[in-house]
Design brief:
Elements lengths: L9 E9 L8 H9 L2 E8 L8 E9 L1 H13 L3 E4 L2
Antiparallel strand pairs: 1-3, 1-4, 2-3
Helix pairs in contact: 1-2
Length: about 80
């Protein structure tokens, strides 16, 4: 009988700075659907005009490897990540 090792969920609290070119893209939704993360939006600023960048304070929780992959995905989009306490 094999025993599978359970992976403890990890959590990261970050501010992501989203370039204006992604204002109309489902960036947060993709974190949930692609990486199976739980996302808690603690604060946000995103305007309907396409002339300014937006930001989200997020608490991301889930499988540590998927969490790491999701942060790499965001960086690949040119999203700046700031670790928050």
């Amino acid at each position: 009988m094999s025993q599978s090792k359970s992976v403890e969920p990890a959590s990261v609290h970050s501010r992501i700075l989203v370039p204006q070119r992604y204002n109309r893209q489902p960036v947060i939704s993709r974190l949930v659907s692609r990486y199976g993360l739980t996302v808690n939006i603690k604060a946000a600023s995103l305007t309907s005009d396409n002339d300014s960048d937006g930001w989200f304070d997020l608490e991301l929780s889930g499988n540590p490897q998927k969490l790491t992959n999701s942060l790499s995905y965001l960086q690949g989009l040119g999203v700046n990540l700031l670790q928050l306490a």
